[in-house]
Amino acid sequence: MILNDFFKITPDKRHVKIKKKVGVIYSNPRWWKKIIFYFGSFLAIFSLVGILYIYTPIIKSWVRYKLIDQNEVIAEIKRIRESNQNLNIGITQETTESIEEVPVIEEPESNEFRVEIPKIGADSDIVANVSPINKEEYLDVLKSNVIAHSSLSSLPGSGMGSTVYLFAHSSQQGVLAARDNSVFYLLGELQEGDDIFVNYKGKIFTYRVYTQEIISAKDSEYLKYVDPEKEILILQTCWPIGTNWQRLLVFAERI
Fold it and tell me: What is the pTM of this model?
């Protein structure tokens, strides 16, 4: 009944009293009232469709996050750590002696650059050396739903006193960009102790979250933030989710 009233205009009615009898007289609304009613209904429907169109990726990200089995996440993190440790162990002397008899074939260097955050199901390619101050450059990158690496920051593995800055949103993007940058939507769910993995040229770097900060959309000082005693990873996204009003920064330390 309520839905029917939303799409169909109801007649005007007024209560009357004739010879001590109370009744209701119905009359069709005037033409201008009909125009206002149907125009208002159209705007309401158009707005609802627009909101669903813009924020569908956010809804999907949230649903996927809620369906993630965090026990499986713990197992996945353990697997990645063990794999990374095995890569870093190197070849034993015994193995080296047996390999010396075989010609060594050098494999091409990997150009892979990706970020994975198991807790929130985020996994995306990273485009290296993107200018955070060149509007045309970063907008062209971010529209592809990938992560941008700030050209003003360091690359993974640069050591203490360096910062890797990754961003998935900019103050120059409008509300429609909510459809294009869904990878980092759930950064706000990360807590101290959560792990972030960055695969750079075939080597996996592990960073552990230690704090968050919300800043103004116009605040750019963290683009050059460093800690002389740490190798830092900063992840940036819009905040609140689906807007471009502020920025959420997640800080993680390489371990």
Answer: 0.70
According to DSSP, the residues that pair with 205 across neighbouring strands are: 198
Lookup: tokens for 183: 């990878």
The answer for 216, left when phi > 0, alpha when psi is -120 to 50, beta otherwise, is beta
14 - beta bridge partners?
25
Nearest to 191 by CA among 207, 214, 210: 210
Q: What is the pLDDT of residues 11-68, one digit of tens each?
A: 666 666 666 676 666 667 777 777 887 787 778 887 777 667 666 766 776 777 777 7
> Is domain 69-85+108-254 in CATH 3.30.70.360, yes or no?
no
For CATH 2.40.260.10, the residue range(s) in the chain are 69-85+108-254
- Sign of the torsion angle spanned by Cα atoms 115, 116, 117, 123: positive
pLDDT classification of 104: cutoffs 50, 70, 90: very low
Q: What angle do CA 250, 182, 166 make, to 5 degrees?
A: 40
Task: Identify whether the C-beta of residue 201 lies closer than 8 Å to the C-beta of residue 111.
Answer: yes
Q: Please identify which residue in the block is written with the tokens 């750079």.
A: 200
